[in-house]
Amino acid sequence: MRQATSQQRAWEVAMRHREWLLEQAKLICRNPTDAEDLTQDTIERFVKASASVKALPSDRSCANWLNNTLQHLFVDYCRKLQVQEKGAKDPVLRGEAVATPEPFVPPAYDSITDEQFTEALEDLKPEARATFELHAAGMSYRDIAQEQGLKVGTVGKRLHDARRKLYAHFQKYLTPGEN
User: Fold this and answer.
1) How does pLDDT run across 111-126, given as a tens digit for each residue?
2) pTM, full prediction
3) CA atoms of 120 and 98, how far apart (whole Å)
4) Cα separations (Å) of 136 from 12, 92, 132, 163?
5) For the packed helices 141-148 and 126-136, what is the interaxial angle rounded to 10 degrees?
6) What is the CB neighbour count within 10 angstroms for residue 62?
7) From CA 109, how far away is CA 5, in angstroms rounded?
8) pLDDT of 28-86, one tens digit each?
9) Could you give the domains of the chain?
10) 98: buried, middle or exposed (CB in 10 Å: 19+, 13-18, 0-12)?
11) Do 170 and 112 contact (CB within 8 A), yes or no?
């Protein structure tokens, strides 16, 4: 019985604020139909929530609750529209056939063993190997140049030559067509 009277009082409060809520909804929705729906959803939520309280708060608190709920429902509505629009653009969400992705193929260099890599490094000239190892350790061209007393361009040339020599060395371990 208490629940029915509480909901009835909530309904009366909501109806007193309905016109004001509808005006607020029209301002944010800019569409009378959506504003009506938003207002109705707000009132329904208010009445359902009031079923669990013994007494309604002041009329001003109820008005604030209605206004906050209206704003939150509008944000939810906007998010829902964004998801729907995204779904309209996304072939997966529309249920259209999408080309299956190519199966993962590990890079060819994954087949190079540590021993093979060490062997390739030992084939480099000592200066090129030192430069390559510093760069592999994370040093910049400028830092390597300072440490080795070289120009930055010389460091770049040594690294280029080292990479070419390593690439050529690894070709014997790779099957044709792999790079």
Assistant:
1) 788 888 889 889 999 9
2) 0.48
3) 43
4) 75, 42, 6, 12
5) 140
6) 19
7) 76
8) 988 899 999 999 999 999 999 888 888 888 888 888 999 999 999 999 988 888 887 77
9) 2-94 (no CATH), 108-173 (1.10.10.10)
10) exposed
11) yes
